[in-house]
Amino acid sequence: MPESAVGASSTSGTVSRRRQWGSEKRSEPLSIVHPAPSRRKVALGRLAIVVTILGWVAYVVSTILRELAENPSASFRFQLEAVFYLVVVTFLTFSALMYLLARQGALYRFRDHRRVPRGELDRHFARYDESITVLVPSYAEEPEVVRATLWSAALQEFPNLRVTLLLDDPPFPTDPGVLARLEATRALAAEIEGRLLEPSMRFTSALSAYQERLASDTPASGELPRLIAEYEAAAVWLETMAENETVGDHVDEFFVDLVLMGLARELRLTVLALTAADAQHAAPDPDRMVELYVRLARIFTASMNTFERKLYASLSHEANKAMNLNAYISLMGGRWHKEKAANGVVLRPATEHHVDDLEIPDSTYLLTLDADSLLLRDYCLRLVHLLESPGNERVAVTQTPYSSFRGAPTRIERVAGATTDIQHILHQGMTYYGATFWVGANAVIRKRAIEDIVEVESVGGFDIKTYIQDRTVIEDTESSVDLGTHGWTLVNYPERLSYSATPPDFGSLVVQRRRWANGGLLILPKLWNQMRERKHRRERILAREILLRVNYMASIAWASFGLLFLLGYPYDSRLLSPLVFITALPYFLAMGSDLRDCGHRFSDIFRIYGFNIVLLPVNLAGVLKSVQQAFTGEKIPFVRTPKVKDRTAAPALYVVVPFLIVAYSLFTVWRDVVSENWGNAAFALLNALLAFYAIRAYIGLKNSAVDMVLGVLNWLHVAPREPRQQPSPVIDKAPEEADWEAILYHGDRRLNRDMRQGNDRRRRISVR
Where is it localised (predicted)? Predict the structure, then answer.
């Protein structure tokens, strides 16, 4: 990875970042269920869409067409500027319109959503025997981060719950610190399963005992106090665990308050209801009592394990999350024999039973969960219930687009989290129009659906199955298109049930946002193929779905280049009009309203604008990487977002360019003031002020200087040349020294390598 962390990362989990001025004071999260919007809010949303469209039309007619009509002898340069300016304004207006459209769909969904009652969930899953496998891909994560994620998955109430940590670190590190972190991470699954053993056995025994009493027609006196005592014990167990947790930052606080104590509070609510029933000399019927016992047993029962694909030479070692998931999914439902080969251990289908066989159970559903994400209590229940509701038989993926952790200690984490919360709303609205995209931080997947899109490739004599495409670094987006091509749909569940970490500094944010900007353009041709397939199946495809999907995949490209042109080119003042401001005003007012509804500030619209200016070179780099891959055909390497306690240094280029934007904007102000082009001068001054604020607030002047110096030093540094690896001729070794297993396994591979290196010396092979 080109990014380097400044300082050693904390492994204790107790070191927290220094809280900055202007950081987020609010630590309590938002409501799980979105409040129903008022009629006034819905009506204003419709009005915003109409004003945006009419404003653009009025601008085209009153400014562009009028200027061209009244100046038939205008210079070619002016005509070209008018066309380009209209194109830029049109694309930016289109993105704003898609924001308002998706937001309006979200308002409709929030207005119409009715939460499934707890009793209906208990009844649906009372005698349920399907299974779900939670897959947590992890690479170089802090053990404390992974631990919280695994706990949030293990405490999900679901029958036959299997949680698997897909550990992708190099399995045999030589660095003592890295090895210690790896061993600590490897121990997490067994540690959590061991902690759950005692409550699991207690509540499973309580369920069995009640069912025995029920079967033997034992009088029911005293049954309700027994059940109350079990729920009380479960709540106390969770509360005790919460008290013993070390809280080092806002994410730890969220884990304690929402994951552990949130579940404890829900169990205590059941205690309150049962106590009230007992005081009123009433009781739930026996079937309901069984459901309540079953709930306790399932909350504290989970199978935990760890899988490392890099231990096996027969699996793909491609360095990305998608192939980490694919490697494990391809083994599910089979028993595999570990066979030692010259290049490592390979897995082959087991024909006979061996003690060391690897057996991986199959499951109906998969839950993919990033190692820095947390699930709230009944995530699995509610999403699987949705998949199994009538009419949802062809829904392949459902999720709750993740929200940001509250109480961020840095300004950049707060404003980046604000954009994440805005995206949560937009993704909910896209589902209203049938334009859902899979957002990879968390999702429940119907395994049968991804088996429809699997591709099989033979690599080195082994079949490599690809369920989730890794052609681009936004594998979830491409898989969404693949599923649609095969007749599957996706749905976002309209509640907040998942949270994920936001990069806390500019360096790690650069890695994340550059990856997000890369790949959308490459997937567009697949979208056209999907539309053709759906038309062939005579499916109804609405224009708004197509427009939302195209905007989602390509808006970063045209918005970045459009903003670049607006910042850099001195357009003629005659092309400016107040109508451009009026056209954009509904977008900014709606975003400010959404930010306020998400617990942020209305004024964050200006901070986000400056934030986007600072990220302009990052987004452009991601877009250009897509263009590079389109022309060269070479896959862009997947770069994981660093997640360390200390600051991650940003590449110097992405620090220098924002300063250049500020300098050029100030130059533009001076030039336009001299030429009395007041509209352009005001726009340039606003860009300069907001960009400089963003640099100071989100990067930091001191950190900028450090990153620039590091960039120069890295550029000057020349890595020592590694000694050329000499070929290892097989024939020159004595029989006692020759690696006979490698010779038999690889055959003439070494000879071919020697020939590729230009070694044409003849070798005599003697057989003794």
Answer: Membrane
